[in-house]
User: What shape does this take?
Amino acid sequence: MLNVNIKIGVVPLHFRASELAFALAPLPKDELPPTSPLTEEDAQDLDALTLAKSYFDLKEYDRAAYFLKGCRSQKAYFLYMYSRYLSGEKKKDDETVDSLGPLEKGQVRNEALRELRVELSKKHTAGELDGFTLYLYGVVLRKLDLPKEAVDVFVEGIHALPLHWGAWLELSNLVTNIEMLKSLSLPDCWIKDFFMAHMYTELQMIKEALQKYQNLIEAGFSKSTYIISQIAVAYHNIRDIDQALALFNELREQDPYRIDNMDTFSNLLYVKSMKPELSYLAHNLVEIDKYRVETCCVIGNYYSLRSQHEKAALYFQRALKLNPRCLGAWTLMGHEYMEMKNTSAAIQAYRHAIEVNKRDYRAWYGLGQTYEILKMPFYCLYYYRKAHQLRPNDSRMLVALGESYEKLSQQAEAKKCYWRAYSVGDVEKMALLKLAKLHEQLNESDDAAQCYMLYIQDIFSCGEQLEHAEVSTALRYLGQYYFKNKLYDEASLCAQRCCDYNDAREEGKALLRQISQVRDQIETPSADLFAPLSNNNTPVRRVSPLNLISFTP
Amino acid sequence: MASVHESLYFNPMMTNGVVHANVFGIKDWVTPYKISVLALLYEMTASKITLPERRRLNKLILPLQQGPDLTLGQFLKTVEECCPQTAYAVKLRLHEMADGELKDMEYFFSTLPTPFTAFDTEAYKTSVVGLFMRHMLLAYNKLSFSQVYKLYKSLQHYYHSHYAKPMDGQVPALVADDSEMDLTSIEDTVGDRVDKEELDTPLHESELRSDNTPSRGPLSQKQAEYFLARQAYLLKNDENKALKPAALQEELNNMLKFNPDFAEAHYLNYLNSMRVQDIFLSAHSLLHYFDRLILSGNDGKSNGDEGYGRSLRYAALNLASLHCRFGHYQQADLALQEAIRIAQESNDHVCLQHCLSWLYTLEQMKGSDSTVLTEDSVKMAAHFCLPYLASLGIQSLVQQGATQGKTAHKLMDALKDTDILHWKHSLSELIEISLAQTTSIWRMYGKSTMSLQQAQLLLNMSSLEPVNFGVQQNNTEAFAVVLCHLAELHAEQGLYGAVSEIIQHLKEQFPPHTQHAKLWMLCDLKIQFERHMNEGKYHLAEPLVTAITALNQLEGLYRKAQVLKAVNRSTEAYHILQQLQARCEKTKCTEMVIRVMLSTAELHWESSGFSTALPVLLQALALARQHHLQSLASETILHLAFTQLMLGVPEQALNVLHEAVEPILAHRAVMDKGCAMLLAARCQMAVAGFKPNRQGQAADLRLAASALDTLNEAAAYFSQLNCKERLRDVHYLQAQLHRSLGQILESNKSAMLFRLLDQELQSPAPPVSMRL
Assistant: This one.
């Protein structure tokens, strides 16, 4: 069956099948499945089919369709219809460029769709459609904005030809939630597992997706680059950066000329600020094919990391010219415009991203940031809330929400946000610090100390050194706090630790001196009990409103 | 895979990340309709037309040029009405092009008189026509090879669809005949043509009508703009004429699907969602609109960065108004502060002024005193020459002043001054508000005639809007308020038939889901409640209390106390009244405070605490006088007189009563008139030395006779309202009076009437002396 995919030459489809076939252990010769026997009609149409297939490969769709007109075999019929469909699409795209006036551009339609639908629905009711034509029928229906009918037809097509991954993919675009997914009746075939894993990734149910992929690997697809890349993407989605990076590196070794998913890889490298690796990847990809969306995105990321934002934006634009529905590029371009302080262009880019996919939380977040830059904290709340809705367990949105609330002097809400951000697992380790500072401002010293303590624990437990860590601030506050509460042992401990940091060394020493003074006084009761405390208020450091460095595309 | 199938939604006009909807800076594109207009212009310059016809055609040019694209049928029909000969010529010319070849169209464009050569014709380069022609020529010359071909194709389609449509309904033979005609003879006889035209027209009209139904595919830019403007206007002024919310939503979705950059559609979407109280969607659309607007604002050449910042400020302001509308005062406050901050940063005084007027509105809605803010706002608005905001502020000040008991003539003066301003700037909206406000103020002061007159004035005023899409009756808040007042005024006079008609009209004009529907709902409930109370049907009044409470909590509490009082659950009623008084005094709701005091005094009567009722009543009287609330004042006097009667000083009571009777008879409700008359009669009886159950001892026969007259009058009022309990009292007194005057026959008659009513009512009569 895999062979059919390859033979019929639905160009973008067959490589997936061959990829999987390659990933499996080679079969001994005599176990090879018999090639499907040619029917009488197939034999008759063989020459026309071959000719048309060549034209089709050369993208001369009308020509291919012309030579296939009289053919009666299923294969030829599919190629005939498919050529007509693609020809319509191609013409539509060409039309878009020179239309009559700005409003007409939206009206350009694939004129072939209606005819195709009529013909196909006739055949469909007669039950003459095979798996491929059913797939095509589904695509036509989807294009005509008939999603319900399209889903039915795709499911039917999948039942007729379960190994056609294209139909599964199209179906995945139409499934919007898990309930809908569960309600579909799908054939019980090994490819269903691939589909389910794909769907879980789409619906942000990463844990289930990883489980599925793991099962597939154990079932014998351990060498499949497709699965490795999907797992890596899944890890990327849950922000397990190291795992994802490791997987991508493995993928690069196995499949060095791969371009798919490399944009995701570059995002990861960008997050980690791994300049040399990103540079290597960019140059390598340019050598392979410089006119690919992924390549352009990688180059954009590369320039962005080098702070050459104009060039980065240029490359993202190029990516969009190659594929305007490339979601990631719109969002990334928005980020670049933000860097260039071109807020209106950024808003436009983000809005486009949302238009392509309403569930793109990064675009919503970006819009929020844009308005935050424009000093409209209340206005940006809406966007952050949207982003938070889409990713309820992402601490970055919560921290952003908290910051906005703080700016609006809604401390109660801000506290809730920060605490929740900490509870869902804070990636940037900022929430606790901010919470502590908020408590400090509100003179809730016990809560503040508690938060600083948790913060220090958090920082040290994660092991690695973070750039923006403010352990010293925390230690300084804790020292003062213990001192005020006359817990001198703890205070001196904190003060000593303070001395490890440059910015807090002096204060640490001063505190130590004070502590020893007070201790002396306690021992010698003649002295004054309360030495005046040095009134060094801890300066509240301003956190820049836009923390783009830590924000990852 | 997906990339192959996904439609290439790519905007070629994108440069530097910003889509310029308008690359060439030309709004006009050549469309088949425009070609028809060009043909018309060409014919007008070329051929000889009689003067009246020419005049009619000239009048037609501007609407044709600027209006939305019409179908060929519509176009030809309008031209034909002015000059059939030219219409025929135009049709001929179009026919030449459509049924000919591409070169015919090209030839047409080349023969057009270029405005640069024609000096003495109407097509001179700076004239309206000349400008249009130049636009069209320029647009045509810019078209690429394939675009020209496409234009020609669409022209053919445009022309043929005009003739193709009738085929559906008619015999195919005629179609064949039709095409033959077209092929064979261009110099067809005019008569035949006209015949065919006549056949076509009715069908075209039906087609037109079906055109008005939603979801008919993409609209052209002009058409879309026209559609949006019209719907927005209707939403503002007469919602019932606009499309239904669902239909409008569908139409907008359709429009946005074909042109996602059409920002105004998002705004209309926002308005539409507000109609159905959908906070989620309306916030979404509003923000989307401003996101889009910020882009187009950036486009403006005149004030590049300025325009962009400006829309940001107004975005925040609009968000504030949105939250305000949905009653999220805290959110609104935050958004408003944000707007104020950005406006301050960029020194935008006009925007700041708008913010300020919103600020006091918000304060007012929250129920706190905002007089100082409003005064500031008015001063600043006057300084920046913003008449709208200034007089809006004054109106709000007047409203506050009225509730705070400012001197009446000052308020009226202020309103009059603003009216002058309104008429000067023809701010029709404010004129309406002003009239509605005067109605309310007069009503509050208890001058029902004046109030009635003002209400009628507003209702009979014809619309002042420069463009009204055939809208006669606006449905703004002002109209709702005035109609409610009208209903209540009629109810007071017991004209319930008229009331139900008014309420019916309100229901139609302001469907329950709309913004101002609550006004009439409350008004309707109040009227029903009063009616049931008057008729003594307390069990019917009680369920209404819950409904009233839902709409207005204070009013609901008050009504609840009234019902409790009526069914003799005095303790509960007293508690509620105390609670209510405390709350009203906090919110400075003077009218309600006085009413609560009156009710409290009535409760005191029930426990025979007439002397305890006195201070309460005096306090109420002072308050009412202070706030110029004449109706409440006279009602209080009525209460006072009754208390005095009960305390045994009927002469004093009669004196006091005389003071109040006049305004009551002039302005008050029928019920009050009846009560006043009844009370007067009782006072007269008391003065006359009449004691119940003692026969023939009337000291002053003259007074007793006049008391009888007064009682008759009262009986007339009560029977008008079908208020049986009071009628029973009246008959009782009448019977006694008659008897004391020795008129046994009349006495028996009254006694019988009393007996009948008493049987009907079944409830034991409360002691007649214990209530007003």
Q: What stands out?
A: Chain A has 29 helices and no strands. The two ends of chain A are 40 Å apart (CA to CA). The mean pLDDT of chain A is 79.
